[in-house]
Amino acid sequence: MLEVYFKECLYFSANRLGRIITKMAEDAFASSGVSPTGAFLLMALYEKEGISQKELGQLLHLQPSTVTRLIEKLAAKQLLYSRMDGRLSLIYATDQGKSLEAVLHQCWNKLRGQYKLILGEQGDDLSLQLYEVCNRLEHPTSGSE
């Protein structure tokens, strides 16, 4: 009976998936010297230089304290820096951080290739479905339709 509970429990299954995919991502990004989350933060900077910490948190779906710690770690590696603009802390990639762009994209493609090899096209479909499920759970509509 317990096995049925686990199979039918979104909490259990989501955490199991999280552990599995985290290990795959850490292995794929290991050669870059940057954590997967750090890599995604840097990739956000490649798209938008001078992004605010708040906007990074919203984009990455991370709490402000987590974003702060991540920025501190990447700044210690001299991959980014922050500049105050009034009350906003704006984040920029350093030249050293920018030089990792191709490597990070290779790592990202390696990760996608690994789960695509196992899941086929279902991997991309699953990613989109999970993203939508997360949005629905974070922002449930009031009432039923």
UniProtKB/TrEMBL annotation:
SUPFAM superfamilies: Winged helix' DNA-binding domain (SSF46785)
One GO MF term attached to the UniProt entry: DNA binding
Keyword terms: DNA-binding
Residues of the HTH marR-type domain: 27-122
Pfam families attached to this UniProt entry: MarR (PF01047)
Biological processes, Gene Ontology terms: response to stress
Protein name stated in the entry: MarR family transcriptional regulator
Organism: Paenibacillus aurantius
